[in-house]
Amino acid sequence: MTRLWALGAWDLAEMIRNGEVSCREVVEAHLRRIDEVNSLVNAVTVTLRESSLAAADAADRARARGGATGPLHGVPMTVKENVDVAGSATTMGIAALREATAAADAPFVAELRAAGAIPIGRTNMPEFGMRWHTDNALYGATVNPWSAAHTPGASSGGEAAAVATGMSPLGIGNDGAGSLRWPAQCCGVSALKPSLGRVAQAGERAGPVPFAFQLLAVHGPLARRVRDLRLAFHHMCGRSGADPWHAPVPLHGPPVPAPVRVRVVTDVGGTGMSPEVADALKRAAAALADAGYLVEEGEAPALTRASEVYTQIMSEYGRVHRDQPPVETIASPGFVRFWQLYEPIWTRAAGERAFDPMMERASIARLWSTWMDHAPLVLAPIRTRPAFPVGSDLDPGWLADWPDTMRTVVAVNLLGLPAVAVPAGQAGGLPQAVQIIAPRFREDLCLDAAEALETALTPLTPIDPRPGS
């Protein structure tokens, strides 16, 4: 039999519908895979063994009775530790929250369950989701399955590593500054950052959500195949969860005249691009051109200023309380050192203070809207450098240009646009990836283009953790 853990969510759902395999067999295969490889990468923090097997048995009984089954019936999923899963702790990577058990699922987790998906585990993240390497005092560091010497990314680094190694066919994370797309780049998987308002923000354990996170952060899926992203995404958008930003917009927009134009961003505000990332961008552009897209180079408007305004909003409105406890009392020494080094860099990255950052955001959004009227898709790097060696983000000299390398990432967050991260080959033993950006609520255009890329460029995962990992 085909190794079930190596299959994607779409394939598994189809096999279950056709009676080729039971839900229990699928869940057990992924639990065994976790047992086999998680000790090498430390991506899954908690295995929901009993509840997932019970859910699989119930799903098999429902199917045997001929009852209605959802499109994700029996498909396992893993969920990042800052998303509510009923009966499991929403730790946010913080040791003090190890017992912060959620009474109910986050709205989109409930929706995925209603479609038949079965949570089998929780995944690792850095404290507060505020570091670009996955490590914390509660569970320790996640290892990149491609190279133990390099970061798996963050903050959804546990999810990316779990999906890359076949421990999960579907991961659920979030993205406030590239936290889906950057780990996807590091681990060689795909990820969808939806438009602002698509997926409900609310969660029982999360409590009040700071304005910056309401505006800049969204929840989304990770998977090894783009069609699995699409399948999951279509079952994350229907419940508002009392989120005031939620917008029940149709999942498919009006047709775009062919050939669809794509602008390739090769100049990220004057910041250089590593050869590996530049080559991945060229490969992706050529693949889209071969697929019938009209590809042309273009300079993204106000990219540097978008990054600065993003930083100002996140800095000013990213807190729940006026007074915060000292970070050293709740976080690991690694995070404390990281933040001590990064805070002055972060402060400088804010640039000239805006009179009204939301007003300036609207001006930048209008510039992008006009720019994308001509070419609705943008092909851009995620970070302009590949996965970094572990420990680099504790070096102040190395950290200095981090905000510049992430401009195309945070501009997408600032403007609430959808973007798909998709692998585009490998170099130096590490995966490379690009992102495809579209106008707000046009995830369908992003996903279509990402599937065209995936068809042309060989998918990179699942993989076994590399020796030394």
From TrEMBL:
Name recorded for this polypeptide: Amidase
**Cross-referenced InterPro entries:** Amidase_CS, Amidase_dom, AS_sf, FAAH2
SUPFAM superfamilies, alphabetized: Amidase signature (AS) enzymes
PROSITE patterns cross-referenced by the UniProt entry? AMIDASES
Give the Amidase domain ranges.
25-447
Which domain of life does this protein belong to?
Bacteria
Q: Return the NCBIfam families for the record.
A: PRK07487.1 (NF005687)
GO CC, sorted alphabetically, is:
endomembrane system
Q: Which organism is it from?
A: Planobispora takensis
